[in-house]
Amino acid sequence: MALTPNIDGAQKIEYSVTEVERVALRRMASTTVLAHRQVVQARGLLLAADGVANQEIARQCGVDSDTVRRWRARFALTGVDGVGVIAKGRGRKASLPEGTVAEIVRVTCHQTPPDTSTHWTTRSLAKRFGVGKDTIAQVWSDHQLKPWKVDAFKVSTDPLFEEKPAPSSGCT
Q1: For residue 110, what are the contacts with CB-CB under 8 A and spacing of at least 6?
Q2: What's the whole-model pTM score?
Q3: DSSP code of 112?
Q4: SS3 assignment, position 77
Q5: Is residue 148 part of a domain?
Q6: Are residues 77 and 13 in the same domain?
Q7: With 7 labelled, which of 40, 56, 93, 161 sits at a CA distance of 20 to 30 A?
């Protein structure tokens, strides 16, 4: 990787693409199974390897020229393995205060709702914690919690239970 001044005075990152990398980029650029961002980035890097300017690459790929510069810089550092990888720290951050998830799990497992219900619903627990029902559903999913499902044997209170015949399976 080398930094050279561009016509407008900005530094341009130059890199050489080996034949192996070029083949891998071509494969990525022509696939239909990879993520769209990975395909577009591979196409842009192939254009960059052919000496096309960042502005033209950005126009053809439908992105900003700064995005093309970041692609080139990441490729210079990580090679083909970094194509399409989302940079760390990007995306939406968790918005629950510290300890809220643990408290949701604890309440779900060890407490019942005050309205005499047998178990919590996503809406009732969300109301208690002041979060959305989808947040509760995600916490339950992450911790494999199913408070509506009872995995216990219940003894019949029917006094004639033992005298009744067992239901037949329908097979003779």
Answers
A1: none
A2: 0.50
A3: -
A4: helix
A5: no
A6: yes
A7: 40
